[in-house]
Amino acid sequence: MTVRATIRVANPVEADKLTELAIRSKAYWGYSQSFMRACRNELAVTEQLLNSAIRHYYVAEGDSGLLGYYAIAKLSEREFELEALFVEPAVIGKGIGKLLMNHAKRLVRQLGGDKITIQSDPNAEGFYRAAGGKIFGSRESQSIPQRQLPLLTIDLMSNDVA
């Protein structure tokens, strides 16, 4: 069953709510408490980040409140990085992630970009592949030393990307 939601710009006063949403979403994958503690700073959303000139934060909101969010950062004239995409665990698999991802693709196109880079949680790699992502390498986690995370790219000029 698909959940209905609207997408809007995140409000800086929602920073703490977005941080907690990201933590709940990450924990969905069954990570240990020590792992989650190590990730907390990397998952933190601040008012400064929400007010950044090079970042764009959008939330999915439903009748029950915030259902998910994403953050896009401009790397160059045509390349952007998806810095975050998190969904409330209760609605994972119900279309919110796809709604956010499609919105992010449209936004990047509107901003003149044609490429999105994604550092993925290994558990979300399939989601990003389904969205048109192609693996091109890995990057060490900022939170867990020696943990390699998949790097994907979405070519928005490709015909197979919605």
Automatic annotation (TrEMBL):
<dbReference type="GO" id="GO:0016747">
    <property type="term" value="F:acyltransferase activity, transferring groups other than amino-acyl groups"/>
</dbReference>
<dbReference type="InterPro" id="IPR050832">
    <property type="entry name" value="Bact_Acetyltransf"/>
</dbReference>
<dbReference type="Pfam" id="PF13673">
    <property type="entry name" value="Acetyltransf_10"/>
</dbReference>
<dbReference type="InterPro" id="IPR000182">
    <property type="entry name" value="GNAT_dom"/>
</dbReference>
<dbReference type="InterPro" id="IPR016181">
    <property type="entry name" value="Acyl_CoA_acyltransferase"/>
</dbReference>
<keyword id="KW-0012">Acyltransferase</keyword>
<feature type="domain" description="N-acetyltransferase">
    <location>
        <begin position="5"/>
        <end position="155"/>
    </location>
</feature>
<keyword id="KW-0808">Transferase</keyword>
<protein>
    <recommendedName>
        <fullName>N-acetyltransferase domain-containing protein</fullName>
    </recommendedName>
</protein>
